[in-house]
Amino acid sequence: MTPVFNFSAGPAVLPREVLLEVQKELLDWHGSGMSVMEMSHRGREFMQIAAEAEEDLRAVMGIPANYRVLFLQGGATSQFAMVPMNLLRGKTSIDFIETGHWSKLAMKEARKYGQVRVAASGEAQGYNAVPAESDWQLDPQAAYVHYTSNETLSGVEFPFVPHTGDVPLVCDMSSNFLSRPVDVSQFGLIYGGAQKNIGPAGLTIVIVREDLLGQALPGTPTMFDYKVLAEADSMYNTPPTFAMYVAGLVFKWMQRQGGLKAIEQRNIEKAALLYETIDTSAGFYHCPVEKPFRSRMNVPFRLADERLDEDFIKQAAARNLLQIKGHRVTGGMRASIYNAMPLEGVKALTSFMQDFARNHG
Fold this sequence. Notes:
34% helix; cytoplasm; Aspartate Aminotransferase, domain 1; pyridoxal phosphate binding; 7-stranded mixed sheet; Aspartate Aminotransferase, domain 2; transferase; alpha/beta; 3-stranded antiparallel sheet; single chain; globular
């Protein structure tokens, strides 16, 4: 079978090794006679799967003991509400660093629960960079500071972790989760949807420092209270069992790759190759993001002659390079090159891009 390279922004490509393992175990998990999809979430078999998934995630990320790991539903978008419901904790204002589409949506939802302060914004520059940290206007009395570490649409990624002093730092890490090492102890809370680097859509991971649990806003639904969910080990209700199982296999795959340091180096190599192809195309292709803030995960680019866009997409698909069209909000092209995208996929894309430029230049 001719290999297909899927550049979708999410749901995204999964490691082939993991997919083959899922295929092998689909009808009978470890001799149980059951598919994971059929198991009780409180049965011995699935409890083992869940425990190993958390243990392996803790090992991969180096999560300290005073942080709880929650496997939840609702996507990262649900966290736009759950975070302020749980972390306002008697305060009224929240600081946001606005860097694009997803941080704007998080701000919009948070306004329902507290006062949103835009401590810094990249809007005036078209969201093509992270505002200089020295210019941020942070409030030391804020309940927390929220930022989006990688904007999936515009391809802007933070090359640093913000310094917020005693104010808890909250990060929507959805699209660069587990793509590089991070010091979890610098954060009050990390959250992200699984469908980029971790597993199937339907699973959301929240990593929250224990001292931030409790004091949810009055009227917070029980299912939105982190303390309740933590005390129930993410099983207050039926969790997304199959997605948790696949995520657990991905965590084990990451360990076999050499962990996040090795994965980061591969991501650097892939991104460098693609950006070099764009930058050396004599203007045929253009990336609008300033170089220090270019994402390793989501690479947006445009053709100088947008009349060629449809031909580019069709010819890419003919070479089994799929899901290359940019988001409807931003237009252009976007290649998402998450952990599971092999270097061979990026080489195939860059080879096509060079051929296309030669034929249409």
